[in-house]
Amino acid sequence: MGERAKEKDRGSPGEFPYTRGIHSGMYQDRLWTMRQYAGFGDAEESNNRYRYLISQGTTGLSVAFDLPTQMGLDSDNPLALGEVGKAGVPICSINDMETLFKGISLGNVSTSMTINSTAIVLLAAYVQIARRQGLQTNQLRGTIQNDILKEYIARGTYVFPPRASMRIVTDLFRWASEWVPHWNVISVSGYHMREAGATAVQELAFTLGNTVAYVESALSAGIEVDKLAPQLSFFFSSGSNFLEEIAKFRAARRLYAHMMKERFGARAPRSMQMRFHVQTAGSTLTAQQPQVNVIRTTLQALSAVLGGAQSLHTNSLDEALSLPTEHAVRLALRTQQVLAHETGIADTVDPFGGSYAIEKMTDQIEQSAKKYLERVDNMGGMIAAIEQGFVQREIQEAAYKSQRLVESGEQVIVGLNKYQMEEKTAEILKIDSRRERKQIERLKRFKANRNEKKIRPVIRRLEDVAGTSENLVPYVLEAVEAQATLGEITDALRSVFGVYQEKVVV
Question: What is the CATH number of the domain that holds 400?
Fold first, then answer.
């Protein structure tokens, strides 16, 4: 590629192909959204944390759900025992969702919900709570992760087989485009693949490969690309290779812009603008000398900002030990605030634009990601590549190579394999086991006080519709409002779609 062609493909900030940023003024006009991912114990305890974060300057909420909720299990399910409220907040009913956002106007906050298999149920509950608050659905702003393909690749909280899951994802696309137009209907996530060991190139390539599958599914359902694309968002990791991460974010925007324009025929500029959230890399945090994690997280957050993120979560220093303490969460938020207000980095759009090293890395990452995308296309697309185990194998091999480098000492991890020291055990957040019992008792009272006769026909209608091509969302909304639980709604869908059993990849 000649120098003139390269300069054209870089463009200016706010111009196609958006290598240098999707807005001409970037943070000069508006800072990134500062989020802190939170949820634990029960809805009441999590609500207290959210209100605290808002009081400390958080500009967007990010909800972590516990594993049973992610898997479509109510808190009183025997399979949920010991996991209720541990890795996130349990949400079994519309009452739990109402408690979670008590005292928080959903019209004044942007909410991100990290939920996938049961995204349709959790978004329905959120919408119904907003209606109870007197809001119109078109007033809501936020994101539902709803990225089921990466669950089969790297994370494992899937419920239904891939093709049934894609039907649910597409139903949410169709419904949301009309009823919640300012909501991001999916956050296509490379983060979890990176946490599983993917390289920066693999993270980018497989994220865009999943995007192709989602867009194709939407187009086949009759959704116009320029109606869908503005509601797509992305979620990336920011790792410790400072310059590589900046280049990755720039390459991601350029690849996406060309893909949407040339592959899918998008015409609206907003359809070609990749908007993404970044979380600093949890997999890089160490339990040893956890204070050093502040340095890691600061540099990772800085690369996300220099790379042009629209939204950012900074991990807390103690997350290799437990869920973060209030003190650690506040320090993580202050890290973003210092970057925004004290460093001057928000005053310049794409500060690294034109840097020889960054431009070369951007080109290399883009070309390497393209090669992966070509291989996936030749396999028949991402669903076929996942079913064949290709994506999983590539990530597993990369993770193995990385681990060997750490174990040999060739890759230095400060405090882990070099510069070790003896230290006292840090103070950690412990989840009170009484919260689990309290949540189960609350759920039992909820079930005892509802109208069972009202729920049964609603569940039957949902099962009937699941066997057709009709959109599921209105029926899930009806079930949530009728006080069916998350587990009951998911069980209804399980009875029709079945449950996915992962194939062992060797």
Answer: 3.20.20.240
- pTM across the whole model: 0.94
Residue 496 forms part of a structural domain: no
CA atoms within 13 A on the CB side of 194: 26
Number of domains in the chain: 1
H or E element that contains 110: strand 110-114
| Burial bucket for residue 347 (CB in 10 Å: 0-12, 13-18, 19+) | exposed
483 three-class SS:
coil
Tell me the backbone φ, ψ of residue 224, rounded to 5 degrees. -75, 140
Q: Judge whether 123 lies within some domain.
A: yes
Q: Flag whether 263 is in a domain.
A: yes
- Cα(309)–Cα(195) distance, rounded to whole angstroms? 19
Q: Which domain holds residue 307?
A: 3-408
Residue pointed to by tokens 């010991």: 82
- φ, ψ for residue 280, nearest 5 deg: -65, 155
Tell me the average pLDDT of the chain.
95
CA 329 distance to own-chain centroid:
19
Residue 452 counted as domain residue: no
User: CA triplet 429, 434, 440: central angle to 5 degrees?
Assistant: 120
CB-CB neighbours of 504 under 10 Å? 5
Would you say residue 134 has pLDDT above 70?
yes
Q: Quickly state the pLDDT bin for 504 (edges 50, 70, 90).
A: low
Buried b (16+ CB within 10 A) or exposed e, 231-244: bbbbbbbbbbbeeb
Predicted local distance difference test score (pLDDT) of residue 3:
52
How far is residue 487 CA from its own chain's centroid? 22
- Say how many C-beta atoms besides its own lie within 10 A of residue 483's C-beta: 19
Helices marked H in 65-118 — which ranges? 67-70, 94-100
* Tens digit of each residue's pLDDT (9 = 90 or more) over 357-383: 999 999 999 999 999 999 999 999 999
